[in-house]
From TrEMBL:
Swiss-Prot/TrEMBL keywords: Transferase
Residue ranges occupied by any Ketosynthase family 3 (KS3) domain in the UniProt entry: 1-167
Gene Ontology molecular function: any one: 3-oxoacyl-[acyl-carrier-protein] synthase activity
Protein name per its UniProtKB record: beta-ketoacyl-[acyl-carrier-protein] synthase I
InterPro entries on file: Beta-ketoacyl_synthase, Ketoacyl_synth_C, PKS_Beta-ketoAc_synthase_dom, Thiolase-like
Organism: Medicago truncatula (Barrel medic)
PANTHER family referenced in this protein's UniProt entry, alphabetically: BETA-KETOACYL-[ACYL-CARRIER-PROTEIN] SYNTHASE I (PTHR11712:SF330), POLYKETIDE SYNTHASE-RELATED (PTHR11712)
EC assignment: 2.3.1.41
A UniProt-annotated Pfam family: Ketoacyl-synt_C
Length: 170
């Protein structure tokens, strides 16, 4: 990432714009998030507030999605709390296809989110839970014009971070 001024000065091709983000810690449990997703939903809401966008503007979520029952359901609960109507929302799980890269996971998922913005393609989620009612882009990539995207990272000890990206509009 670099400032707009620096990128323009050096003639860089700007891939996306970082609109904002948030970091929170709910310290609920050493390994498990709050089942209702409250700690995570708080971080998502704060990131949108920092970015100056409403939940209705977001149409893509790169989920933390570790394939742990407790964690994934808490994240789905958090997303439903913030986004209320998820009928137009697309959400995928990068870890479902590349595994958990531990310390590099957040960075790789941010890159994946930006690639979705620049290419208009969302990678599929594989082995998804059929009970999740949000469109998880199951098994086959999908064309999707991203307006505003978030990338979630939720770690042990209740450490939460969410970054917000959008296409760059000169």
């Amino acid at each position: 990432m670099e400032s707009l001024e620096s990128a323009v000065k050096r003639g860089a091709r700007i891939l996306a714009e970082y609109l904002g983000g948030a970091i929170t810690c709910d310290a609920h449990h050493m390994t498990n998030p709050m089942p209702d997703g409250l700690g995570q939903s708080s971080c998502i809401s704060k990131s949108l507030q920092d970015a100056g966008v409403s939940p209705q503007e977001v149409n893509y979520v790169n989920a933390h999605a570790t394939s742990s029952l407790i964690g994934d359901l808490a994240e789905v609960n958090a997303i439903k709390q913030v986004f209320k109507d998820t009928s137009e929302l697309k959400m995928n799980g990068t870890k479902s296809i590349i595994g958990h890269c531990i310390g590099a996971a957040g960075a790789l998922e941010a890159i994946t989110t930006i690639k979705a913005i620049t290419t208009g393609w969302l990678h599929p989620t594989i082995n998804q839970d059929d009970d999740v009612t949000i469109d998880t882009v199951p098994n086959v990539k999908k064309k999707h014009e991203v307006n505003v995207a978030i990338s979630n990272s939720f770690g042990f000890g209740g450490h939460n971070s969410v970054v917000v990206f959008a296409p760059f509009m000169p």
